[in-house]
Design goal:
alpha/beta, 9 helices, 44% helix, globular, binds S-adenosylmethionine
Length: 217
């Protein structure tokens, strides 16, 4: 499915999120508090838009994804020439133990077939004391806003996607997976059960997105 959306992935995201995706990525980078030269894994990197943002900190950011279509679209972009990509499955990462100072997954955990397995794999490749930031769609905190947002998600978003995306069905899937995804507290408990501690979260844009932060136990 991701191979099918790769060609217009970046622009579709920016249109559907009304430009907010840039802000969410910046906040993810800031939360990771990376130092120049530190190694950070960006799992489910897709076209590398999230990886390129991490590189702005001076860290060595490696993008990993199992969709060759997404990785190729990233490689074809002039702005991503310097991004190192590795093809790999988040549930069986092609890296040795404890080789990264930090890891992140932006809008990807929801798509992984076995969320716990991916979280445990991330814990395996991050050194003890290293950091994790999960950036993912979440549950708006105010009830009235949540109703409006769900209407946008289920009605307006698929309509816009039909006009912008290279595979609009994928955006119906997007809306459905966002609706089915656990709320902030529940995801925090899942992360804590998979080799991470000090789990906490910050809501962005009223809870449309949440950043879950954790440290490797
Ligand atoms: C919505 S994209 C996110 C891309 C990017 N991180 C961003 O912020 O735009 C989700 C990505 O998750 C990847 N993905 C899903 N399951 C995966 C897995 N098991 N291993 C690696 N990548 C996976 C898909 O191929 C896709 O590129």
């Amino acid at each position: 499915m991701f191979d099918g959306v790769a060609r217009r992935y970046d622009v579709t995201n920016t249109v559907l999120s009304l430009g907010l995706d840039r802000h969410w990525r910046t906040r993810t980078r800031q939360c990771l508090e990376l130092l120049p030269g530190q190694r950070v894994l960006d799992l489910a990197a897709g076209t590398g838009v999230s990886t390129a943002e991490l590189q702005r900190s001076g860290a060595v950011a490696i993008g990993c994804d199992f969709s060759l279509g997404m990785l190729r679209a990233g490689k074809a972009s002039r702005r991503r020439r310097e991004v190192p990509f590795v093809a790999g499955d988040g549930m069986h990462l092609p890296f040795a133990d404890s080789v990264f100072e930090a890891a992140t997954i932006a809008f990807g955990l929801r798509n992984v077939a076995d969320v716990r397995m991916a979280l445990r794999e991330l814990a395996r490749v991050v050194r003890p004391g290293g950091r994790l930031v999960v950036c993912e769609f979440s549950r708006p905190t105010l009830r009235a806003f949540r109703v409006l947002y769900l209407n946008y998600l289920m009605r307006i978003l698929p309509w816009i996607a039909r006009r912008v995306s290279s595979n609009s069905d994928a955006y119906v899937y997007l809306a459905e997976t966002i609706r089915a995804w656990p709320a902030q507290d529940e995801l925090a408990r899942t992360i804590a059960g998979c080799g991470w501690h000090e789990v906490r979260f910050r809501n962005l844009s009223g809870g449309i997105v949440a950043l879950h932060l954790a440290e490797r136990a």
